[in-house]
Write a structure and sequence with these properties.
The chain is mostly helical. It is 60% helix and 7% strand. The protein has a two-stranded antiparallel sheet with strand order 1-2. β1 and β2 form a beta hairpin. It is elongated, with a radius of gyration of 29 Å.
């Protein structure tokens, strides 16, 4: 397999999207049993998770997640049959896997064009130092130009002729 990672985001006709983040949230809700626990598991704020759940529920004909309030065990959430179907259609055995297998040659070709390793931090620091030096030289030239212009204006304080 290539070292290219496929991440597919579906842009739906109604303007909404379903992508890896929402699928991961659905899977976490299925595993954890609540939006709060799923958000914690994904290192996401509860508010963000709740908004994503609302968006998914509003996107589909039927809700992907149902919630219950209070009770002895507190609030809970469950992935519905529609949510399970979305997970199944999107996940490893479907859309992403089809893309990976059908575009394997293209991914391999792109992999061969990519640098084998990222630019080192030391090289990035050297490039940044060069850019900062250029900026400082530009500032000095700009300051010198302003001083020269001010001197020239003082020398030529003759009134402008009227036409």
């Amino acid at each position: 397999m290539t070292s290219v990672h496929v991440s597919i985001r579906l842009n739906l006709a109604n303007g909404n999207r379903i992508g890896p983040g929402k699928i991961a949230l659905l899977e976490a809700i299925r595993t954890e049993g609540s939006i709060t626990a799923a958000a914690r598991h994904l290192v996401m704020s509860y508010r963000r998770a709740w908004l994503l759940v609302q968006e998914m529920n509003n996107t589909l004909h039927q809700p992907a997640v149902t919630t219950t309030q209070g009770g002895a065990n507190g609030s809970s959430a469950a992935v519905t049959a529609v949510g399970e179907e979305v997970i199944e259609l999107y996940s490893t055995n479907s859309i992403e896997e089809l893309a990976r297998t059908s575009a394997h040659k293209e991914f391999q070709a792109i992999t061969e064009l990519v640098r084998r390793e990222a630019i080192s931090i030391a090289a990035q620091q050297r490039m940044l130092a060069r850019h900062l030096k250029r900026i400082e030289i530009a500032r000095q030239l700009n300051s010198k130009l302003k001083r020269t212009s001010a001197r020239m204006l003082k020398v030529t304080k003759e009134p402008e002729p009227r036409i």
